[in-house]
Design goal:
CATH architecture of the largest domain: 3-Layer(aba) Sandwich
CATH class of the largest domain: Alpha Beta
Strand order of the largest sheet: 6-5-7-8-4-9-10-11-12
Radius of gyration: 27 Å
Shape: globular
């Protein structure tokens, strides 16, 4: 009989050590190392198995040039969900969906599976709720008559045996992967070992039987999917469901997709009857905008393959603290520090004693550097006390020298702005690049100092400007 040895595994990153410690040396997290049992073999635990004594079978090698059929798609009918998946679910694929508790993951998947059940058999396995609770949610959403088959179980062996009995379903939802466990391991459900093993068995089932498997994953306090990172490498797509508790908007964002574009987003609005699709997010994010307020700029961004217009709000105020505050919602705080440093060093605006607040309206999170120019414009507008033109969109990347660098997909950004009624655009200078064909008035900016001079012309900034002797 194999001797049972003890190992210590970090529940955050999956690192294995031989002794317990309060802090993981790999990821730096505290109180995440737990003791787990693992079987060992050898002199004390029995004879070692012989490895490599038998010849492996030959695999078929094919040339690179050849015809491969496009994988068919399972279109759920929820257009924003299908968009993020790359046009629908691919049979035999594994999708991992994560999000904060209560954000709407179960609601979204129940709506998508109910729509898909009109054309294909689907199964919803809940490891966190009883069947009665899932039925209550379905009645609240008006989905009680859908063809979704429900199950409440956490034993993975029983779940796979049930799914393989007869014709396999077209799609299966496992809610959630942290509640699943297998008898082959002594670890408790939710540990790194159990999550890794159960996810691997489910991915193997998906590839073998051609069933699209959707795994729901918990997230950590940092917003990352909990468990070992190897789970994200095993699946075909990783999708995050984002949103601020104070906003009714929810953003479905793909960060990995082997069958479609990454960074694609789908926008939903939480209502009384569940999540409603938002086909035109730009109009929604700008619907309550007040164009006569200083410190507000409209950014023309790209999320995946979709151009999105969103309002960026900034407020610069005199600080009463020794260390001024820098509060950011929806953007990278490090990127804001860089823009403030460039405004100080290259444009002569002293912001060291000012509190700076930055907010991306609507709950959207922006990751691309093309928002630099919009953020700088909103900051300068707040400093000067002068509103930006309400019919103008702004985009461009700022370099450390203060120069404005061009960004990709300029024409798509301008077309979206023109469709929503904007008349002007402030953007990087084209130089040798071809000018896009658009009906907007294009205001080209080559450096940040020129933009500051243009925005502050005829106004008195509320903060001190650094003199030439001080620079």
């Amino acid at each position: 009989m194999a001797r049972v040895s003890r190992t210590f595994t970090c529940q955050s990153c999956g690192a294995v050590t031989t002794r317990w410690a309060g802090r993981c040396e790999s990821c730096g997290e505290w109180n995440t190392i737990t003791e787990e049992a693992a079987e060992s073999s050898g002199v004390a635990g029995g004879p070692l198995k012989l490895v490599g004594k038998t010849k492996g079978r030959h695999i078929a090698l094919v040339p690179m040039l050849g015809e491969t059929a496009e994988p068919p798609r399972l279109v759920t009918g929820v257009a924003e969900f299908d968009r993020v998946c790359g046009g629908g679910l691919v049979p035999g694929s594994a999708v991992l969906i994560g999000g904060d508790p209560g954000i709407g993951k179960s609601t979204l998947l129940l709506q998508a599976m109910a729509a898909l059940s009109k054309n294909a058999p689907v199964v919803y396995i809940s490891g966190e709720e009883a069947i009665a609770q899932v039925r209550m949610r379905a009645r609240r959403l008006g989905l009680e008559t859908s063809g979704v088959e429900l199950g409440a179980e956490t034993n993975l062996k029983d779940i796979i045996a049930t799914l393989e009995d007869g014709n396999p379903p077209a799609a299966v939802v496992i809610d959630s992967i942290q509640t699943m466990w297998t008898e082959a391991l002594e670890s408790a459900p939710g540990t790194v070992t159990q999550v890794r093993a159960t996810a691997q068995d489910l991915v193997r089932f998906a590839k073998r039987r051609g069933t699209a498997v959707i795994l729901v994953g918990h997230v950590t306090k940092d917003g990352q999917i909990a468990g070992p990172r190897v789970v994200e490498h095993m699946v075909d797509a990783v999708i995050y469901f984002e949103g601020e508790r104070g906003h009714q908007f929810r953003i479905l964002r793909a960060v990995k997709n082997r069958f479609g574009p990454a960074n694609e987003i789908g926008v939903f609005e939480m209502g009384e009857l569940g999540l409603q699709e938002v086909p035109n997010p730009s109009a929604l994010f700008l619907g309550e905008r007040d164009g006569d307020t200083n410190g507000s700029a409209v950014f023309a961004g790209i999320e995946g393959t979709r151009p999105v217009l969103v309002e960026i709000q900034a407020l610069v105020a005199q600080s009463s603290l020794g260390t001024p505050r820098r509060a950011v919602v929806g953007w990278d705080s490090g990127r804001l520090s860089m823009v403030l440093a460039v405004l100080d060093a290259r444009c002569g605006l002293s912001l060291g004693g000012q509190d700076v607040y930055l907010n991306v309206a609507g709950g959207l999170r922006i990751n691309e550097p093309a928002a630099d120019l919009s953020v700088a414009s909103a900051l300068v507008s707040s400093i000067a006390g002068t509103p930006l033109p309400s019919d103008c969109v702004i985009f461009g990347e700022i370099s450390l020298s203060g120069a404005i660098r061009p960004v990709s997909q300029t024409e798509a950004r301008l077309k979206e702005a023109e469709k929503l009624g904007f008349k002007r655009a402030i953007l990087p200078a084209f130089a040798a690049r071809q000018r896009p064909s658009t009906g907007l008035e294009l205001i080209e900016i080559s450096d940040l100092a020129g933009l500051v001079a243009k925005l502050t012309a005829g106004s008195k900034p509320r903060i001190r400007t650094v003199s030439d002797d001080e620079i």
